[in-house]
C-alpha cells in the first residue's frame, strides 16, 4: 500500500486501554492506515476489579505490533482516572509524535458475575474508569487537536449496556457498568456540540460481547457458568453472542476516516442486534 492509499497518513492518534483486547486492535489498525500511536494503558490491576488487567509487557507488545504495521508508537503508562497523570503522559507522546488528530477513548472495566448488591468499591472503580476516565481523556487530548487546527475525530467506546439495561441483575457492578456506559453517550453528545466549531467529530461505538480478556477470563467464565445471565448476550444474528475485536475496529476505522466526514453525535452498535431486540 502506497502512502497516498493510507487514509490516516501523518495523523497522530491516542488510544486508551491499548495494552490488549480492542484497544490493541484499534491501535494496530490505525497504524496500518498510516497513523502514529500514543498508546495509553494502566498496566496494573485495580483492587476492586476481579480479573487481571493488561501488563507493561502487553503494552510493549502493542507497541511492537504498531511498529510492525508501519506506525510510530509511544507507550504511556497512565491511569485514565487521574487527569494530571493522563495529561502528563499524553504530553510526552505529543512531544515525540506531534499534536493529536484522533482519540479512541477505549479503556474500561467491568465486573460481570460479581452479583453483590452492595459493593461500593466496585461501583466506584467502574464509574471512575468508564465515565470519568472518558471525560479525563477528552480533557487531556482535545486541546491538542484544537491547537493543531485541522479538525479531528474522537470515538468513545461505550457498550450495548450504554443503550439498554437488558441483563441487569441488581448488582452494584451491573448498575455501575450500565450507568457509566449510558453516561458516555451524554459525554459524546455534549462533546459533539462543544467541539464542532473546531471541526472535531465525536461519536460513540457500542460493542456487544467481544472476545477479549475482559470477559474471557477465569472469574467471568466461572461466574457465568454458575449463574448464567442469557439476557446479557442474546443477539438477533445467530451464532454471534461474541463479536471479534476487528469487528469493532472496522466501525472505528470508518468513523475516524474521511468517509465519515459528516458523521458526528451518533451511537453505533456493533452487537449482532442485541440492542434492537
Ligand atoms: N469485551 C466486551 O465484551 C465489551 C463489550 C462492550 C464494551 N466493551 C468495552 O470495550 C472497551 C475495551 O474493552 P476490552 O474488551 O478490550 O477489554 P480488556 O480488558 O481486554 O481491555 C481494556 C484495557 O483497558 C485498560 N484499563 C483498564 N482500566 C484502566 C485505567 N484506569 N487506565 C488506563 N487503562 C485502563 C486495561 O489494562 C486493558 O488493557 C472497554 O471500554 C469495555 O468496557 C467491552
UniProtKB/TrEMBL annotation:
Family assignment from sequence similarity: Belongs to the short-chain dehydrogenases/reductases (SDR) family.
InterPro entries attached to this UniProt entry: NAD(P)-bd_dom_sf, SDR_fam, SDR_subfam_1
Keyword Membrane: no
UniProt entry keywords in alphabetical sequence: NAD, Oxidoreductase
Gene3D superfamilies in the record: NAD(P)-binding Rossmann-like Domain (3.40.50.720)
Gene Ontology molecular function, alphabetical: oxidoreductase activity
Domain of life: Bacteria
PANTHER family hit by this protein: DEHYDROGENASES, SHORT CHAIN, ESTRADIOL 17-BETA-DEHYDROGENASE 8-RELATED
Protein's name according to its UniProt entry: NAD(P)-dependent oxidoreductase
Amino acid at each position: 500500500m502506497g502512502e497516498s492509499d493510507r487514509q490516516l497518513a501523518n495523523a497522530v492518534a491516542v488510544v486508551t486501554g491499548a495494552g490488549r483486547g480492542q484497544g490493541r486492535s484499534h491501535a494496530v489498525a490505525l497504524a496500518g492506515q498510516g497513523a502514529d500511536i500514543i498508546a495509553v494503558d494502566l498496566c496494573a490491576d485495580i483492587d476492586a476489579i476481579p480479573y487481571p488487567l493488561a501488563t507493561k509487557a502487553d503494552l510493549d507488545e502493542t507497541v511492537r505490533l504498531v511498529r510492525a504495521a508501519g506506525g510510530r508508537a509511544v507507550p504511556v503508562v497512565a491511569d485514565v482516572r487521574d487527569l494530571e497523570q493522563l495529561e502528563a503522559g499524553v504530553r510526552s507522546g505529543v512531544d515525540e509524535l506531534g499534536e493529536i488528530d484522533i482519540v479512541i477513548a477505549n479503556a474500561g472495566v467491568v465486573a460481570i458475575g460479581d452479583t453483590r448488591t452492595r459493593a461500593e468499591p466496585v461501583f466506584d472503580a467502574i464509574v471512575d474508569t468508564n465515565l470519568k476516565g472518558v471525560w479525563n481523556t477528552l480533557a487531556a487530548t482535545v486541546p491538542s487537536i484544537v491547537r493543531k487546527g485541522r479538525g479531528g475525530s474522537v470515538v468513545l467506546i461505550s457498550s450495548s449496556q450504554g443503550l439498554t439495561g437488558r441483563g441487569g441483575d441488581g448488582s452494584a457492578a451491573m448498575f455501575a457498568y450500565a450507568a457509566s456506559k449510558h453516561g458516555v453517550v451524554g459525554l459524546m453528545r455534549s462533546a459533539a456540540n462543544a467541539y464542532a466549531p473546531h471541526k472535531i467529530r465525536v461519536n460513540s461505538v457500542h460493542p456487544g460481547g467481544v472476545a477479549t480478556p475482559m470477559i474471557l477470563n477465569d472469574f467471568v467464565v466461572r461466574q457465568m457458568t454458575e449463574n448464567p445471565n442469557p439476557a446479557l448476550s442474546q443477539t438477533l444474528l445467530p451464532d454471534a453472542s461474541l463479536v471479534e475485536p476487528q469487528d469493532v475496529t472496522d466501525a472505528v476505522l470508518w468513523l475516524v476516516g474521511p468517509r465519515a466526514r459528516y458523521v458526528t453525535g451518533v451511537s453505533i452498535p456493533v452487537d449482532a442486534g442485541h440492542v434492537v431486540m
